[in-house]
Amino acid sequence: MIRNVSADLFRIVAAYRSTDDSRFYLQGVYVQPHPCGGAYLVATDGHRMLVVYDASAECTEAAIIACPSDLLRAAKSKPVRQRRRGTAAQDGEPMGPRMLAVIEDQAIISCDGFEVHRGGAPAVIDGTFPDWRRTVPTIDAVPAAERSLSPAFAPAYLEAFGETGRALSEHFDTSAPVRIVSCGQSAALVLFDNCREAFGVLMPMRSMAPTALPAFLDARPFAEPRVQVSPVERSNVYGRDSDSWGFTVTTTRSELHLPEARQFAFSTEAAAKRAYMALRKKLAKRGVRALPEKYRPAIALGDAYLEALKERAAAIADAREAFQAVEDVELEAPWRRAMVVRSMAPLPAWESPVIVAAATEAAFRRLPARSEAAALANVYRLAA
């Protein structure tokens, strides 16, 4: 399955494919699933190669996608600035980014949920794409002192020298490959091979970016997501008039994904610390991969849950006094049942049956006698 591939990225990578019919397996874009989600988009003609990572792509198996001209024309989205201004196209075409999918061996371009192009079959080239990773140079082999001197150039200037080299080749009827000779942090010398009648000078751009391969190349998902819990501290995350207490849970799934953070707030420091310690104990067992789903409701109840526990404790105390006062009367007596029901606070409607059962069991364990616990159980059944 291949879908949700950025059609613009596909079109850009397709410019690096081969046009040699004898190497048909290089005449398309190689779409390969990434271990952390998304896909690699790779194209090469044997002399140059471009590798792009598409985070939004959905790909379950690698395939070489053919690049007919009508597909590439349909793959071009409206300019980003035009889409941001919301300028409507005069011909009524959709304005959103265009996406590529391969369905039943047909390449389909869609935009804003509408199909704008459907290519003919087959969309997948039956061949074996070469191991493109073997051609990626190892920058670590270059001494750090030399890597720090690698200059950066403006794309427009590089394009201009490329056009100049093509013009010189036509004029002198020879090949004139463009050679850029780095001279440290000073200007670079641009030479045209086999053409000694011209040269150029190219000023580098100041760049603080690291000279390393992008992180997505060898990024792998963690065997177990990394979960970090910040200490309890005073905060005001919900914009309350009075400060609250809370902590933050940060989950990281891989070297490539950004950390995901969730904040939990409580009205009292004691409540926040109880939830914090309970969560730390669960994470210490290493049996959970992230913040457990079954644990989130108990934290999310917050102040309302704690207030309900206080009301329940007071109601249980009233019921115990009622039982002691009428110990010799049958529980089923209507007047006694009414008195007990009035003394019991109703259970909150938002509580799940699991939480209700756990709270009831905890309340029974605090009672001094089994008979009283059994009587309270009957009271809960009658009240229900």
Automatic annotation (TrEMBL):
Q: What is the name of the protein in this document?
A: DNA polymerase III beta sliding clamp central domain-containing protein
